[in-house]
Design brief:
8 helices; mainly alpha; 167 residues
Length: 167
């Protein structure tokens, strides 16, 4: 049965492409034999952001995207990026990660941002970029929590106005 399902997926080009894409996102498609360099990490982020841009927001597996971003934010990668000062790698890394984080809901995004902060504490401008993004996301969360109450209040106010003007 499993062999039949595997053949069914791998024989169809669309299913195969989706399968390969999910393997790539999980980091299992290609065995990493080459050394991990800042350029390679940034290239992976470029591929990820390109994939996110091409996909419908509702068709993205958010848990898988979060896992892949956590993989890119592991201690080894963060050490490689933060140690590299030439070619502005840390700044480019932060901006590309933040672009990918935009596709995630708040409950995934905040822990990712908090994961980045300690690695870039010695670079104040990068820490400030992360803090600004975190502040913006928290403000969006507050706004989304307050919006139903605001709508309810306006509806009640409108009902009261209609009641008194129709008397």
């Amino acid at each position: 049965m499993e062999i039949h399902e595997a053949y069914k997926i791998l024989s169809d080009e669309t299913s195969r492409a989706r399968y390969d894409h999910e393997l790539w996102l999980s980091g299992q498609l290609y065995e990493r034999k080459l050394p991990i360099t800042p350029k390679r990490i940034l290239d992976d982020l470029d591929k990820l952001n390109l994939s996110i841009a091409e996909l419908n927001v509702y068709s993205i597996n958010l848990s898988l995207l979060n896992s892949y971003l956590l993989f890119l934010l592991n201690d080894h990668h963060l050490a490689i990026i933060s140690a590299q000062q030439s070619d502005n790698y840390p700044d480019r890394f932060i901006r590309k990660i933040l672009k990918a984080v935009d596709a995630l809901p708040l409950y995934y995004a905040i822990p990712l941002l908090q994961r980045m902060k300690p690695a870039f504490l010695h670079q104040e401008h990068l820490t400030e970029i992360i803090l600004q993004k975190e502040k913006k996301l928290k403000a969006e969360r507050l706004r989304s929590r307050l919006m139903p109450w605001l709508i309810l209040l306006l509806t009640l106010l409108l009902c009261v106005c209609m009641y008194f003007f129709n008397r």
